[in-house]
User: Fold this.
Amino acid sequence: MNRYYLTIVSLMMAVVMYGCNKSNPIGEEDHSVFEVIEHAAIHMQDATGLNVTADTAKPGPHLDPDSIDHRRIDVTLPAMGNGYGGYIHFGPNATGDRLVCFDIETALEVTNRTGSGDSPIAIEEVFTVQQIADSAKTTFIKSAYLFEAKTGGNILKIGPVSQSTVKLIIEEAAHDHH
Assistant:
């Protein structure tokens, strides 16, 4: 009986110690991103957000980093071709991964405005409504995009979508929420 108990305890410790593969940085990143999405869902439900009207041309209205920190942004989108869409931009104080979470499923393109023009920023990962519901346990966020924001102007092109308003949250992808 004692030997059986020790074997079970040893197996349980192995699962706890090695079950979450800490040597896999992608696994850690995915885990922390879903925590950020859960946190963003809380802000998505806040009573008031920052109101902004997107523009049909780059760069769109500027969002001050201090005014959007942990805050929902209610964006009114102009009509564009096959739906609604538009541009807004923000300039974080430091380069780093950012997560943009939307209350609807939408397309997103990101560029960085530099002195020599605009350069595309690669979307590192797109999170679908199903991934978000399964891993972050929320239905308030319908799509999320992870990318490396640069200091200066990060231009977000939202849409096209079928509705004229969207709600979004821009969060640092790896900050502590405890």
Q: What stands out?
A: The longest strand covers residues 153-161. The chain has one domain: 25-172.
